[in-house]
Amino acid sequence: MRALATLLGALLLPTLAVAQPPVQRASLQLDYRFRDMADYVSEDYRVDLTLRIERGRAELTVRGRYELQSAELTPAGPGRSSHHESDVDSTWRGTARPEGGGWLVRFDTEPGFEWRCLPARETVGGQARAVLRCGPERPVSWGPPGRPVPAYFRVPICFAAPVIANRVFASFGGSTHVVLE
Q1: Which residues lie closer than 8 Å to 119 by C-beta, 6 or more apart?
Q2: R_g of the chain, CA atoms, integer Å
Q3: What are phi and psi of 155, to 5 degrees?
Q4: CB contact set of 10 (below 8 Å; sequence gap of 6+)
Q5: Residue pair 22/130 in contact by the 8 Å Cβ criterion
Q6: Which pTM was predicted?
């Protein structure tokens, strides 16, 4: 009986994962903060994301604006500070395999990292809505010097067809608060 249940699970779980539309979209307003004894960093993203999962491949397209503000915290008062704004136009590719009723997306990057994407129901504007909730499989580090991992890979994001709006407030090593609209 256990073998039959295992076999049925192996057949049905990929079907459930594959039943999601191949293209999911999200609008993301992300306010990400980091503070330690010597630095304060604020990253603000206003981006549109498109996630396509088909035939074992995944592609995440991110377009919009990014703003970075940083400041040194010194005992003598404010230290050096910087401000940078830029457009975001990135495409990330990787593999996607059905796992646990959803997808495990492994991005082809250095350093490598994974997202787990699971179908869920969320209440948005008083209505229940089918979404694909994606987030890091394990905590994602800042990345190698000079090539930081974007903050949108470090927080949960809900995708849907048609688009769903996410407002995410997060702090490094702290809490994450997500509002869906």
Answers
A1: 16, 17, 20, 101, 102, 130, 131, 132, 133
A2: 18
A3: -125, 160
A4: none
A5: no
A6: 0.80
Token pair listed for 148: 């930081």
Instruction: Kindly list the domain boundaries of the chain, sorted by start residue.
Output: 2-180
Cβ atoms 158, 166 nearer than 8 A: yes
pLDDT digit string (tens) for 19-68?
567 899 999 999 988 888 888 889 999 999 999 999 999 999 999 999 99
In this prediction, residue 146 carries a pLDDT of: 57
Residue 33 near residue 170, CB atoms below 8 Å:
yes
Backbone phi and psi for residue 139, each to the nearest 5 degrees, phi listed first: -55, 135
Angle at 124 between CA 60 and CA 48, to 5 degrees: 25
pLDDT < 70 positions in the chain: 1-20, 140-147, 173-175
CA 26 – CA 168 distance, rounded (Å): 12
Q: Which helix (H) or strand (E) holds 148?
A: none
